[in-house]
Design brief:
The complex is a heterotrimer of chains A (514), B (119) and C (102).
Chain A: H1 12-30, H2 35-62, E1 66-68, E2 72-74, H3 76-97, H4 100-103, H5 107-126, H6 130-148, H7 155-186, H8 191-199, H9 204-222, H10 230-237, H11 240-265, H12 270-293, H13 298-317, H14 322-349, H15 365-368, H16 370-384, H17 390-404, H18 408-434, H19 443-455, H20 477-495, H21 498-512
Antiparallel strand pairs in A: 1-2
Helix pairs in contact in A: 1-2, 1-5, 2-3, 2-5, 3-5, 3-11, 3-14, 3-20, 5-6, 5-11, 6-7, 6-11, 7-8, 7-9, 7-10, 8-11, 9-11, 10-11, 10-13, 11-13, 11-14, 12-13, 12-18, 13-14, 13-17, 13-18, 14-16, 14-17, 14-20, 14-21, 16-18, 16-20, 17-18, 17-20
Chain B: H1 2-30, H2 59-83, H3 90-112
Chain C: H1 6-26, H2 30-55, H3 59-89
The chains are: A mainly alpha (514), B mainly alpha (119), C mainly alpha (102).
C-alpha cells in the first residue's frame, strides 16, 4: 500500500508553533513554582512565533505552492494571512507578558492555548479542504473558549466564555451541516473539486442550503449581524490581552477561509451569496456602529466597533473578485495594527485586578500619560478611517473594489457608517485631550459595581486556586513596546501602503487569478 | 423492496410489544394467590436507597470525566490505524507515535497541575 | 435485499438536526442546550456516513471521525466552562447569566 504524498514543508510554520506550545506546557509543568518559567514562558512563546514567522518568510521566498496532500497548501495567500496572525499572536504574548499573573496562575496554559489557537488559525488560512477548514475552525475556537474564561476570579470572564461557547458550538453545527451538504452535492470535500462539480451543475437544493449554512457558520465566527450576540459579552469578559488577540486574529483566519471557500468552491452561486452578504454587510456595519455609539466601557465599544469592521471587510467579499480579496487582506493587516494598538493602550491603563476601562477613565490622559494618549489618538483616528493613517486606505480599497463591481449602494452605506463611527472614536480623543480628570464622574458607579463583585466571596476552588493580585508593581516595558510597534505600523503602512499592496496583490492573484 | 424490509421491523415490534403482557398474563393465571405484607412490597435488590436519587455529582467527578473523554476518543483514531497496521509502512508507525506523544504531553501536564488528584 | 435509500437517512438527519437547533433556541438549561448541540453534530455525522455510503467513498466517514473527536473535545471544554460558571453563580439557567449587558 502506498501512502499519500505529504509535504511537511507546506505546514512548517504550524509545526513550529505546535512544538513551541507543547514545549511551553512541558516547561510550565516541570517547573511549577519556579521563577524561571514565569519569565521564560513568554520569551519562549515569542521565540517560537518569531521562528514561525521566519518559516513563513522562507516559504514566501521559495515561492510557488506547496501542498499537504491537497488538504492544506502554503501559497502566497495563506502565507500573507499567516503573517498577520503571527503578528497578532506576538502582540498577544507581549501584552500578557507583564499582566498574565493578574488574571491567572497558569501562565503556561495561557501561552500554550494562545499558540494552539494560532496553529488553528494558520491552518485555516491554508486549508483547501472542508474537513481541514472545520478542524482548524474548531482548534481555534476551542482554544479561544478557554482563553475567554481564563480569569477564574472574574464572574464576567466565565459568563463571556459560556456565551461564546454555547453560540460558537451552535454555529459549528451549522457550519458542519453546510459542509456535509456541499459534500453531498459534489461528492468531494476538496474545495477545487467542489468548484468543478458545481460548475458542471450539481444538486441545487444541497448547493444553496449548504451555502446558506456556511454563511451562518462563518458569520458567527466573524461576528456578523445577526449572529453577533456573543461578541460584546465575550470581548468584555475576556482578559484584555485575549480580547485584543482574538478580535484581530480570529477575524483574519476566518476571513481567509471564508474567501477561499466561497471563491474557490462556490463561484457557481456567486450572484446569490453576493446579494446575501451585501445585505448582511450593510446590517453589520450599521448595527455595530449604532450600538458602539452608546457604550461607556471602552472594551465593549471596541467590541461593537469590531463588529462594524467585520461588516466593512465583508463588503470586500461581496463582489467575489480578486480585487475584493486583496482589499480584505489589506484590511486585515491594517485592522491588526490599529486594533491591537488600541487594546495595548487599554492593557497599559488597566488598574490592577480590573478588567475594563471606561471612557471616563480617559479624561485628562494627555496630561497624565502624554505618550499613551498620543498613541491612542493615532489608533482612534486610524479606526475611524481618517487619512493618512492605515485605516483610511483599508476602507478605500474595500469600497473601491465594491464600487468597481457595481455595488454603489453598499459603498454609500459604508461611507455613511464611517462618518457615524467617527463620533465614538473621536469622543475618546476628546476625552483624552479636552477633558480634565475631575470630570471623570461616570467612572464611579462601575467602581462600586466592581467592589461589590469582589465583596462576594470568591469561591475557593481546589483545582484552580484563585490568585490574589500581587502587590508589586510590574514593569510595562513589553506593553510599551507593543504600543510603539502598533503605532509605528499604523503610521508607516498608512504613509507607504504601496509595497504592502503590491505584495498582497501578487499573493492573491497567484491563487484567484485576475 | 424497502417495504419488505420494514415488514420484519413491524412484526418484530408487534411481537416485542405483546411478549411481556403474555408472560405476565400466564403467570397471573398459573400462580397460587396467598399474599402477605412482605410479599406485596416492591422488589429491591441490595440495600434500600436513602434520600433522593437525583443527587448531584461532585465537580471533581467531572474533572476526571473530562480527561477520560479526551483519551477515550483518541481510540477512534487508533482503531483504523491498528486494523490496517499490517499494510502500513514505518512512516505510519512514527505518525501514530507522534499522535500519542502529543496526547501524552497533555496527560503529563494534567498530572503536574494536580488535575489527577482527588481533592 | 435492497438497502434503505440514502434520502431516508438524509431526511432523518435533517429532522434530528432541526430538533437540536430548535432545542438550543428554546431550552434554558445550559446542559440541555449543550446536549442539543451534540445532537446537531450527530445528525451531521449521520448525513456524512449516509453520503459516504452512497458515493462508495471513505471521505465522509473520515469526516465523521473528525467530528466525533471534535465533539468530545467540545464536551470537555463545555463542561469545564459550565463548572466555572456554576462556581460563580450557582445556576445552570442561562436566563440568570446576565452580568454582561448593553
Amino acid at each position: 500500500m502506498t501512502l499519500p504524498q505529504v509535504n511537511f514543508l507546506a505546514i512548517l510554520p504550524q509545526i513550529i508553533v505546535t512544538a513551541t506550545a507543547l514545549l511551553v506546557l512541558i516547561v510550565d509543568a516541570v517547573d511549577r513554582r519556579g521563577a524561571f518559567s514565569r519569565r521564560a514562558l513568554s520569551w519562549l512563546s515569542l521565540i517560537g512565533l518569531l521562528a514561525a514567522g521566519a518559516a513563513v518568510v522562507w516559504l514566501v521566498m521559495q515561492g510557488g505552492r506547496q501542498s499537504f496532500q491537497d488538504m492544506a497548501v502554503s501559497d502566497g495567500y495563506s502565507l500573507a494571512f499567516s503573517a498577520i496572525i503571527l503578528l497578532a499572536a506576538a502582540m498577544g504574548v507581549l501584552l500578557a507578558k507583564d499582566t498574565v499573573d493578574q488574571f491567572t496562575r497558569m501562565p503556561g496554559a495561557y501561552y500554550a492555548l494562545l499558540l494552539l489557537a494560532v496553529v488553528g488559525m494558520m491552518t485555516m488560512a491554508s486549508a483547501t479542504d472542508l474537513i481541514v477548514v472545520f478542524l482548524s475552525l474548531e482548534i481555534l475556537s476551542l482554544a479561544l473558549y478557554v482563553l475567554v474564561g481564563f480569569n477564574l476570579r472574574e464572574p464576567r470572564s466565565a459568563e463571556g466564555s459560556l456565551k461564546y461557547f454555547l453560540l460558537g458550538a451552535f454555529a459549528s453545527g451549522f457550519f458542519l451541516y453546510g459542509a456535509a451538504l456541499l459534500y453531498g452535492a459534489s461528492g468531494s470535500t476538496n474545495l477545487a473539486q467542489i468548484g468543478q462539480a458545481m460548475g458542471a451543475g450539481g444538486n441545487e437544493i444541497y448547493l444553496y442550503a449548504g451555502t446558506a449554512l456556511l454563511v451562518v457558520g462563518f458569520g458567527f465566527k466573524v461576528a456578523m449581524v445577526p449572529f453577533h450576540m456573543w461578541t460584546p459579552d465575550a470581548y468584555q469578559g475576556a482578559p484584555t490581552p485575549v480580547t485584543g488577540f482574538m478580535s484581530v486574529a480570529t477575524k483574519t483566519a476566518v476571513f481567509a477561509a471564508f474567501m477561499r471557500v466561497f471563491m474557490q468552491a462556490l463561484p457557481a452561486t456567486q450572484e446569490t451569496w453576493g446579494w446575501a452578504l451585501a445585505i448582511l454587510a450593510a446590517l453589520t456595519m450599521t448595527l455595530g456602529n449604532l450600538a458602539a455609539l452608546r457604550q461607556t466601557s471602552l472594551k465593549r465599544m471596541l467590541a461593537y466597533s469590531s463588529i462594524a469592521h467585520a461588516g466593512y471587510a465583508l463588503v470586500g467579499l461581496v463582489p467575489g473578485s480578486a480585487a475584493g480579496a486583496v482589499a480584505v487582506l489589506f484590511y486585515m493587516l491594517s485592522y491588526a495594527l490599529m486594533n491591537l494598538g488600541a487594546f495595548a493602550v487599554l492593557v497599559a491603563l488597566e488598574r490592577r485586578g480590573e478588567n475594563d476601562i471606561l471612557r471616563g477613565d480617559m479624561h485628562g490622559l494627555s496630561d497624565r500619560r502624554p505618550g499613551l494618549a498620543a498613541a491612542m489618538a493615532i489608533f482612534m483616528f486610524a479606526l475611524a478611517g481618517i487619512p493618512p493613517f492605515v485605516g483610511f486606505f483599508a476602507k478605500f480599497f474595500i469600497f473601491s473594489a465594491a464600487a468597481e463591481a457595481g455595488w454603489i449602494g453598499l459603498v454609500v452605506i459604508g461611507v455613511i457608517n464611517s462618518v457615524i463611527s467617527a463620533f465614538y472614536y473621536l469622543s475618546v480623543v476628546v476625552a483624552m485631550y479636552f477633558r480634565s480628570e475631575k470630570e471623570a464622574a461616570p467612572a464611579a458607579p462601575v467602581k462600586a459595581r466592581k467592589s461589590k463583585d469582589k465583596a462576594a466571596p470568591a469561591p475557593a476552588t481546589p483545582s484552580a486556586p484563585v490568585p490574589q493580585a500581587p502587590a508589586l508593581a510590574t514593569s510595562q516595558n513589553a506593553i510599551r513596546l507593543a504600543v510603539v510597534l502598533a503605532a509605528i505600523g499604523t503610521v508607516a503602512v498608512g504613509l507607504y501602503p504601496a509595497p504592502w499592496t503590491a505584495y498582497i496583490t501578487q499573493a492573491v492573484q497567484s491563487v484567484f487569478g485576475g | 423492496m424497502i417495504q419488505e424490509n420494514f415488514q420484519f421491523v413491524l412484526i418484530l415490534a408487534v411481537v416485542a410489544f405483546i411478549f411481556p403482557f403474555v408472560g405476565v398474563a400466564v403467570a397471573w393465571l398459573l400462580r397460587p394467590k396467598k399474599p402477605n405484607k412482605l410479599k406485596t412490597t416492591t422488589y429491591e435488590c441490595g440495600v434500600e436507597t436513602v434520600g433522593d436519587t437525583w443527587s448531584q455529582f461532585k465537580a471533581q467527578y467531572y474533572l476526571f470525566a473530562l480527561i477520560f473523554v479526551i483519551f477515550d476518543v483518541e481510540a477512534v483514531f487508533l482503531f483504523p490505524w491498528a486494523v490496517a497496521y499490517n499494510q502500513l509502512t514505518l512512516y505510519a508507525l512514527v505518525e501514530a507515535f507522534v499522535f500519542v506523544g502529543i496526547l501524552f504531553m497533555g496527560l503529563i501536564y494534567a498530572w503536574r497541575v494536580n488535575a489527577l488528584e482527588w481533592q | 435485499m435492497d438497502q434503505v435509500p440514502t434520502t431516508y437517512y438524509l431526511i432523518l438527519s435533517a429532522i434530528i438536526f432541526t430538533i437540536g437547533a430548535v432545542g438550543v433556541l428554546v431550552r434554558r438549561n445550559m446542559l440541555v442546550i449543550f446536549m442539543c448541540v451534540e445532537m446537531m453534530l450527530n445528525a451531521v455525522n449521520l448525513t456524512l456516513i449516509a453520503l459516504a455510503l452512497q458515493f462508495g467513498q471513505l471521505t465522509g466517514q473520515i469526516f465523521a471521525f473528525m467530528v466525533m473527536a471534535v465533539a468530545a473535545a467540545e464536551v470537555a471544554i463545555g463542561l469545564a466552562i459550565v463548572i466555572a460558571v456554576v462556581r460563580h453563580r450557582d445556576t445552570t439557567n442561562v436566563d440568570d447569566i446576565n452580568l454582561l449587558r448593553g
